[in-house]
Write a structure and sequence with these properties.
By secondary structure, this protein is of the alpha+beta class. Helix content is 31%, strand content 33%. It has helices spanning 9-20, 58-65, 98-114, 119-125, and strands at 24-29, 35-40, 43-44, 49-53, 68-72, 82-91, 128-140.
Length: 141
């Protein structure tokens, strides 16, 4: 498991981006070995990245076949502020904790409303909880 060293400038910056950014690229690996990047909403729990998915999506099949994944945040558009995490993903049948729900809902409430959904409708549609445990971090500012 990766522990962010928030006493360093880079570690504190990564932790802030993981808390504040709305989008992250989740890269899974298809059965034929092809990397499959997917832009997803996420929640950083402090130790894991939490993603909700609709059932029967390719990323879920890919994770079932190969748990190794990569995550990366958007750069600054000039090749800087690179943050890449690698680790393992798994489907969590227990779902999110109440604290995770309480953090996720306000983070995405405006976007969920723009989708024409209530939060309850969103959680029914995106009912699969994926947990990603980062193991390595690389990047630069």
């Amino acid at each position: 498991m990766l522990t962010l060293d928030t006493t360093t400038e880079f570690g504190a910056h990564v932790a802030a981006r993981l808390r504040q950014d709305l989008l992250i690229w989740l890269v899974t690996v298809a059965a034929d070995g092809t990397p499959q990047p997917t832009l997803v909403w996420f929640l950083w729990t402090g130790t894991e990245v939490l993603v909700f998915s609709q059932p029967d999506k390719p990323k879920l099949r890919n994770i079932a076949h190969n748990a190794r994944v990569a995550l990366h945040l958007e750069t600054n558009g000039q090749g800087g502020d690179v943050i890449v995490l690698t680790g393992r993903a798994h489907i969590d049948a227990a779902g999110p904790s109440p604290a995770e729900e309480a953090a996720y809902e306000p983070k995405y409430s405006e976007r969920i409303t723009r989708m024409g959904l209530t939060y309850d409708e969103f959680t029914r549609a995106y009912s699969v909880t994926v947990r990603i445990e980062p193991e390595k971090l690389r990047g630069w500012r």
